[in-house]
Design brief:
The structure holds 2 protein chains of 2 kinds.
Chain A: E1 10-16, H1 22-32, E2 36-41, E3 56-60, H2 62-69, H3 82-89, E4 94-98, E5 102-104, H4 115-124, E6 159-168, H5 174-179, E7 192-194, E8 207-211, H6 212-215, H7 237-252, E9 255-265, H8 271-277, H9 280-294, H10 304-318, H11 324-344
Parallel strand pairs in A: 1-2, 1-4, 2-3, 6-9
Antiparallel strand pairs in A: 4-8, 5-9, 6-8, 7-9
Helix pairs in contact in A: 7-9, 7-10, 10-11
Chain B: E1 22-28, H1 35-42, E2 46-51, E3 66-70, H2 72-79, H3 95-100, E4 105-109, E5 113-115, H4 126-135, E6 170-179, H5 185-190, E7 203-205, E8 218-222, H6 223-226, H7 245-260, E9 263-273, H8 279-302, H9 312-327, H10 332-351
Parallel strand pairs in B: 1-2, 1-4, 2-3, 6-9
Antiparallel strand pairs in B: 4-8, 5-9, 6-8, 7-9
Helix pairs in contact in B: 7-9, 9-10
The chains are: A alpha/beta, B alpha/beta.
Amino acid sequence: MSLSIKDDEIDIVIGALRPDLTSFMNEWRTIFSRFHLIIVKDPDLKEELKIPEGFNLDVYKKPDIDRVVGTSTSTIFSGYSCRYFGYLVSRKKYIISVDDDCYPAKDNKGILVDAVAQHITNLTTPATPFFFNTLYDPFTEGADFVRGYPFSLRSGVQCALSCGLWLNLADYDAPTQALKPEERNSRYVDAVLTVPARTLMPISGINIAFNREVIGPALLPSLRLGGEGKFRWETMEDIWSGMCVKVVCDHLGHGVKTGMPYVWRNDRGDAIASLRKEWEGVKLMEEVVPFFQSVRLSREAKTTEDCVAEVANVVKEQLGSKDPMFARAAKAMVDWVKLWKSVGSST
Amino acid sequence: MAEPATATQAAAPVVALLKNELDIVIPTIRNLDFLEMWRPFFQPYHLIIVQDGDPSKTIKVPEGFDYELYNRNDINRILGPKASCISFKDSACRCFGYMVSKKKYIFTIDDDCFVAKDPSGKAINALEQHIKNLLSPSTPFFFNTLYDPFREGADFVRGYPFSLREGVPTAASHGLWLNIPDYDAPTQLVKPLERNTRYVDAVLTIPKGTLFPMCGMNLAFNRELIGPAMYFGLMGDGQPIGRYDDMWAGWCTKVICDHLGLGVKTGLPYIFHSKASNPFVNLRKEYKGIYWQEEIIPFFQQAVLPKDCTTVQKCYIELAKQVKEKLSKVDPYFDKLADAMVTWIEAWDELNPTGPVPNGKAA
């Protein structure tokens, strides 16, 4: 059922927060080498990047980022947000992005998971957000819509975002991982499912893919914690961006899928150290979730850019006064839309 | 290729959870041979057999099971004129079993469902998994990407607000099927050989505001929390529709659960579904339903229950009112169904006169 996608419609964007990408690139070689890669170096990273030979790639470092967006703007791409620069300059239809501490996983049969192929399958088969299918993705081999599923809803909608999962180190927050320091995710759930319309979820940036043509502008660097660090436990930028994306997708009638593919996420960092350093993100979600659940976009918002601008406005009005971080996030969203229009749009 | 389990004895539980608090309701028209395979898992529990079809036929229950059996004569005797709400010649009659039960939990299973094997080859104790699902909270307000956070080896992911981590009580647990999947007739006709061999190792809460097709083949629920909503409608003999009994109950149940702040889970456990019913017979039964569901679904998606509906019965009566108002124009059947929904609640309250049961908070 999926369309046949040419390799040159895909960009793989990697945010490099660590300098030595040798083992990362070598582990992914059989899966990545067919595609063009965009590697964006965290502008705060001082050491030189080490990248093995044999890939078709473009590397962007601080000077490149400064040149494209200006030195004052380039600060928005610090840390994990460096990947958004890659999304901005890409000209491909599909983008796949994994963290640089993730490796290919093995499925229940011991076979290496081609995360790129699975993300592309997810993005090129319809999503079904308006009614839940109890056998999960009906477009998967060996599955279908179940009895009771209305026929008028069976053609589905375009899938704009594919959210993958993680074996080994799951994407827990610091308190959760600190409480269960030995817990690792060993459960491989053989499913992809559509996240229902108007249902929100924490969209992790660790392993995602999206249709850049459809929702590119909605994945954005905007919320930055005061103490944001270089471990996922110390960030919320992707969670915030993901809430925006889901609200926009729901409004425009696009689908979001979650589930496979899995990647293997390496042990890194110390949850307790991160916990001592940063509670902010955890507290924030208490405001952020009810806020996004209440956002309703206007009928006039028909493009992704318009939707993002409207969300930014609501953020400013309703959350801006509660914490300057939200006011800054709203401004960052408005700036991003402008940046996308000038730099991100295809010429 | 999926196969049913054979070594069920080895997997029998040491402790039968909720032994005195759960009834197993089984509708049958033929025989109960399938119970032999389930014996190690089911024997500690009380069974309620609802015999459909000819009441003069004797249904033999395998030795050693503790059970009560009701045929059509019993249903007529117990309910009198209200028996009109219980379907005849359709497994929808099973909901009579829910009504006469005195237990807190119900597990219902079809007589062509056998013990399945998990990927390691181990026999699956479906009842045990349903109980685990019902005894742990649901999380309908925000989706957890690692599925049920209360399962061993899982938890809430980064970004999940702590204030939502307590969850809400679970009202229903919807299990799945290996081998013959629960497809409608058109799909069965197009794919007669398709078998479900995918074991998806997940339980998840169906989010608030999202409807789903609830299959009654492998289902458990908290009777005290949601029992009166589990009316399986007017199907079978003398009715224009069949094979929509569980669907109807599922849509009503979900709307009410969403309103009262209760959760519905789906996923594990799997059973092995052995019998594919005749797709041509199914098509005739479902035919009207396939058209009507195009109207029914938007009706349920837009249904709003007033704040003063604080019990399941009140919610259900209100839904019946709305069905009469909005769906009668689709077909006079819905007018009859709305009346039957009210009769059901009256019968439920008569047989269960303990007064309003504690529910979740109304939304």
